[in-house]
Amino acid sequence: MIIVMKQSATVKDIESVESRLLDLGFKTHPIHGDIKTVIGAIGDKRLLNVHAISQMQGVETLVPIMKPYKFASSELQHTPTIIDVGGVQIGGKEIVVMAGPCAIENEKDFVDTAISVKKSGAKILRGGAFKPRSSPYAFQGLEEDGLKIMVAGREATGLKLVTEVVDTRDVELVNKYTDIFQIGARNMQNFRLLSEVGMTRKPVLLKRGLSATIEEWLMAAEYIIAEGNHEVILCERGIRTFETMTRNTLDLSAIPAIKDVSHLPVVVDPSHATGNWKYVPALAKGAVATGADGLIIEVHPNPPSALCDGPQSLRPERFESLMDELRLVAQAIQRTI
Amino acid sequence: MIIVMKQSATVKDIESVESRLLDLGFKTHPIHGDIKTVIGAIGDKRLLNVHAISQMQGVETLVPIMKPYKFASSELQHTPTIIDVGGVQIGGKEIVVMAGPCAIENEKDFVDTAISVKKSGAKILRGGAFKPRSSPYAFQGLEEDGLKIMVAGREATGLKLVTEVVDTRDVELVNKYTDIFQIGARNMQNFRLLSEVGMTRKPVLLKRGLSATIEEWLMAAEYIIAEGNHEVILCERGIRTFETMTRNTLDLSAIPAIKDVSHLPVVVDPSHATGNWKYVPALAKGAVATGADGLIIEVHPNPPSALCDGPQSLRPERFESLMDELRLVAQAIQRTI
Amino acid sequence: MIIVMKQSATVKDIESVESRLLDLGFKTHPIHGDIKTVIGAIGDKRLLNVHAISQMQGVETLVPIMKPYKFASSELQHTPTIIDVGGVQIGGKEIVVMAGPCAIENEKDFVDTAISVKKSGAKILRGGAFKPRSSPYAFQGLEEDGLKIMVAGREATGLKLVTEVVDTRDVELVNKYTDIFQIGARNMQNFRLLSEVGMTRKPVLLKRGLSATIEEWLMAAEYIIAEGNHEVILCERGIRTFETMTRNTLDLSAIPAIKDVSHLPVVVDPSHATGNWKYVPALAKGAVATGADGLIIEVHPNPPSALCDGPQSLRPERFESLMDELRLVAQAIQRTI
Amino acid sequence: MIIVMKQSATVKDIESVESRLLDLGFKTHPIHGDIKTVIGAIGDKRLLNVHAISQMQGVETLVPIMKPYKFASSELQHTPTIIDVGGVQIGGKEIVVMAGPCAIENEKDFVDTAISVKKSGAKILRGGAFKPRSSPYAFQGLEEDGLKIMVAGREATGLKLVTEVVDTRDVELVNKYTDIFQIGARNMQNFRLLSEVGMTRKPVLLKRGLSATIEEWLMAAEYIIAEGNHEVILCERGIRTFETMTRNTLDLSAIPAIKDVSHLPVVVDPSHATGNWKYVPALAKGAVATGADGLIIEVHPNPPSALCDGPQSLRPERFESLMDELRLVAQAIQRTI
C-alpha cells in the first residue's frame, strides 16, 4: 500500500499517518519528494483498515499495490486452468462450442435442436429453465420440467448441459440435473448465489455483469473459488455502453486482458452481446481469432416463434455453416473446434 | 405496435406481415409512404410474439407504442403514491431523511448514532445487517444479530427501520425486524428477490442498478407491484459511467424524469453515489432542490474506524449541521424536512 | 512517480529500472515488500519519458503522484478565481444566470428575448451564431450576421454576450463581438481552438466534452491558461451514458469535485443536459443548491418554431417564474441571484 | 414520421396535430388504438420542423422512420464502396494494413520503420506530424517538418501515406503531402474540419469519436460526403466505457453493424483502442476475422523511447510475425492480406 500525502500535508500529518501504520503492524518507508511525500506501507493488508488511513488529515489518496483477487490471479497460478466436464476440456487447445435455445420450450424441439447442434460440432448443450426476464409479464421458463427436458437432450446426444440458476433456493435442484451451472449477468454480484454454487463441486459459467469491470468480474469468480470450487469459466457477453445499434457492446479486449492477469478460461456469448443473429457469425469468428476458449451460441429451430430472444438465435442450418467457418479460423490460430 | 418495413420490402413482404398480424388477432393499418411502408397493429400486445414479426422478411424494426410497465406508470395512476411507514409519510410534502451507518457493528455505537440522527431530524434509521461486498474477504455483516441491534435502535428512538435483504431465503427473517426492505443496486434485477418482497406487505426501497435505465428500474418496481405490494420507494444512488473522480455518477435528472412517467416516490442516496463524504452535503442539498422525496445518508460516529464505507460517512455533528442547511433548501421549494 | 514492479520481477529487473531512473536524473527510493517491490522516483517529471520505464522488463505499472494540470489546480492557487465580465462577476457570492435562444434567428426575436431575460434577472445573454449540428442538413447559424444581432441585443439591454466559436479561423471575428467565448462540448479537445482562444484575453466558457473525465476537462482548461488566458469558466452540460430518457446525464457531482481540486468557477447548463424543457427548472434549482456559480439556460419566445433545440427551451414567462424560484434557493444557501 | 399521442390526448389535440401537419404539406394517417392514437405523416421531412410538432399539446413522442444519413447509407448505394489510393484498394477482397509510428520523430527512424513495415506487408504508412495531446506540455508533433519526413518514407518505399489533420487552417498544407487525411477521434464532430476535407478530393480516414454512436459517426461521414468527397474510410478505435484495464473498449460489433447499414469500408485500430501492445495481436486477428477491411497498427523501432504512445507500439519484428498470423486468419475467411 502506498499512501500519497497532500502537498499541504504538514510534518505532523505525515508523522501521524506513519504512527498509525506502525500501530497496525506495518513497516513504513516514507519518500519525501520536492512537493509531496509518499509513504510505502509493508505488511499484511488484511490488517489494514484502509478507511482509517484514507481519512486522516493530510492524506490525498491510497494506492493499492496488490490485486484484490488471489485465487483467480495468474500471480498465484501461472498455468491456465483447464476444466474437465465429463471429458470435454474447456481452456485447452480445443475451442468448445456450447449451443442451444435461449429457453427450453418443449421436449421435441429441444431434443431435435440438441441432435442438430451435436451433429454440427457443439460439445455442450445450453438451455434456460429459469429465465430472468426484464418484464414480470414475459415467459419465465419451465423450471424443473425444463431441467427434465434438458436431461432428455443429454440422453439423446451425450452432450453435456449448461443451464442458469437464479435463486439460492434452486441450487440443489439444478445441481441434480446440470453439468455446468450458469450464473447470469444480472446475478454476477448476487454474492449469496455465488457462494452457494461455490459450495458445490460443479463447474460454473460466470457471465460478466452488464457494467462490471474485469476486476469486479474476477472478484466474483473469487467468491466462488473461496468456497472451494475452482472450476470457474468466465463468459464475456457484452457490456452496457451508450451505443444502441447493438444490445450491448461485446468487449473482446477482455480476452487478452484476462489471459494477462488470470488463469481462468474465457468463453464468449455473441448472441446476447449483439441481440441480433445477423451479427453473431462475424463476432463468433472474431472471438475465436482473438483467443476465446469457447463460444456459447443461441440456436433455435424456428426463431420467429421462440418464446425468448428469437432475434438473436441462429437457425440450425446457419449454425452448421458457421461451425464450418469457425473450424477454419480456429485452424488459422493453431487451435481446433 | 408500429412495424416499419425496409425500403427494399416487397408488396409480398408487406402482405405477409399483415397476414401474420391478422392471424394473431390484430387489426392492421398500413401507411404507404413514398419510400417506406409502416404498419400500425392494434390489439392486445400480450397476444403478439414480437420476435415472430421482427424476423419476417422485409421488416426493418418494431416500434412499441405502449410503455412496458403498467402499475408503476402515471398513465394508470395520476396522483403521487404516498407511502405510510408507521406514521412517516414518504412522497408527501415532507422530505424524509433516512440516516445511519453503512453496516451495523455493535449495539452501543448503533443506538448512539440512532439517538443522534433522530435529534438532528432523521425519521428513518438505516443500517446493514447483510452486506453485499465486492470482495469475499470483506466484512459481510452481523446478520440476525445486526437485525436485533437495529430493533434496539428503534426502541431507543421510535425511528422506523430500513435494512437490506440480499437472499430470498432471508426475506422472512428480515421481515420480522424491519419496517422497510431495502433492495440493493446489485440485486435490482434479482427478479426472484423482487417477487419475494412483493409477496410481503412491507414497503420496499428499491435502489437503481448501477447500469439500469430508468425504464428497467420501473420494470423492477413492476415485479414487486405485480405480486400485490404497491409500496415501492425508488432510490437513485448513482450510475456507472467513465468518470472516476466520484465512485458513481449521481443522476439527479432521474427525479423529474420519474415524476413525469411514474407516481412512485423517489429518494436519493448521495453517500453511495459519490463515495466521498466531502461531496455529500452539496449533493444532498442539490437532491432536495431537484425534488427528491427523501434522502438516505450514511452517518457514523467514527468514520475512520467504520468496517464498511467509512470514507462516505458523515460524522453526527456534520450531519446535524447538514440537516439545518437542508431545512432551508426544503423551505425554499415549499417543502419541509 | 511510483514504479510498481511485478511479483515476478528479478533483482536484475529492479536494478535496471533504478539505473535508468538515475540516468534520467531522478533520485530513487526502492521499497522491498514481501511480495512486490515499488520504486519511488523523485525529480522533474518532465525529464521522465514515462513510456521508457513502463515498458521495461518486470514493470507492472506506474503511479503518477502529481496531478497532470498545474494552472487549473487548487494546489497552485488556493482562492477561487472570480472572473469579471465588464462588471458581472462569475465565481463570487452571486450566482450568474446566462440566458437566451440556442440559435440566433432574427433581430426582433433576439432583442425581445434579451429584454425579457434581462427583466427576469439574467446577467449574460447567450445565442449561437455558429452552430455545430450533428446533421449537415440542419440549420448551421447566421454566422457574422448573427454576431451583429447579438450586439444589438447587448445595446438594447446592457447584458454581456456569450457565443460559441467553432473554428480557429473565426476566433478573430468572434472576438470583435462577444464578451465571452464559448467552446462547445464537441470541441473540448480541439486543442488548436483552445490555444487560439487562449491567446486572446477574453473569458472562455469551456463546456465539458460528452465523454470527458473531470481531469481531461481541467487539462483542456490548462491548454487555454498555458497560453496566458486565465479567465476560464467551466460549464457542466451532461455526459454521455447509457440512459436514454434524458439526452445526456447531468453530472452535478462535478461541482463539488471541481471545487475540491480546482479554483475555477463552474456553471451548469441544464437545457442541453436534459434536452427537455420540462426537466430544466428542477435541475436548475438542483444545480444552484449543489453550489454552481452560474446557470446557462435556453429561452425562446416560441419554442415550437425554434430552428434549433426548441424542445429544451423555456418560454420567457416560465423563465421568469423559474428565476423567482431560483432566488429563494440561492438565498437558502447564502448566495444571491 | 410517426407521431405517438399520449393516452390523455383529447380529440382536439389530435386534430390540432393533424391540422398542423397538413399545413406543413404532409399527408396524415391517424391510427386510433384502444388506448393511444398514432399519426403517420407522409411527405418530405425536410419540410417538417420536428420541434414544432413534438411540443404540441398531447404529443408523447415522435418516431423517425427514415435514417438521418443519406449518402453514407446502404439504402442509397447497395454495393460496397472501394476506395483506390494510388492502386491500393480499401474495401475489396484484400485487407489493407496501415502501419508506422504514432508520431514522426526523425527521418532515419521513420524511413527505417517504413522499409520494415513494407517488407512485412503493410500497404500504407502512418505517422503523426500534428498530434492532439491531452496535455499542453506533451510533444505536439514536428508539423511541416514531419510531413516532409513522411514523404521521404514514401519515396523510400512506395507506400502511400496517411496522416492526421487537426486544424482547418492546415488542410491545404497537409493536402500537399499526404495520400489520405486522417480525422482523429477528438475531431469527429469538428464539423468545420469535416467540411474542409470534404472539399478536397483525397480519401479521408474518419476515426470514431470516443463517445460517438454508429449513427453519429455515419452523420460525420455524411458531412464529408455532402461536400462532394465520397472517399470516406471509417476507423473503429475504441469507445469510452467504464472499463479501465484497457484504454478504450474496442467495439468490433461496429463492423457487422456498419456493413448492415452503410456501404463504406471499415478499418480497425487496435493500438489506440487498447493502449497496450500486448493486446494488439489478439485484437488485430479478431478484427480481421470479424470482417474489417483493414487495420492501422502502431509500429516503432524502439517503443520505450517513443515520444508518443510507446506502450501501444509493436516492435518491427513483432509486427512481422503478426502479419504472418494475420495472413492465415484472412485466408480462413477467404480474404487476403
TrEMBL record, chains A, B, C, D:
GO biological process, one term: aromatic amino acid family biosynthetic process
Organism for this UniProt entry: Ruminiclostridium cellulolyticum (strain ATCC 35319 / DSM 5812 / JCM 6584 / H10) (Clostridium cellulolyticum)
Superkingdom: Bacteria
Ranges for domain DAHP synthase ferredoxin-like: 1-67
Keywords: Transferase
Gene Ontology molecular-function annotations: aldehyde-lyase activity; transferase activity
UniProt protein name: Phospho-2-dehydro-3-deoxyheptonate aldolase
SUPFAM superfamilies: Aldolase
Domain DAHP synthetase I/KDSA: 87-326
NCBIfam families per UniProt: DAHP_synth_Bsub, PRK08673.1, PRK12595.1
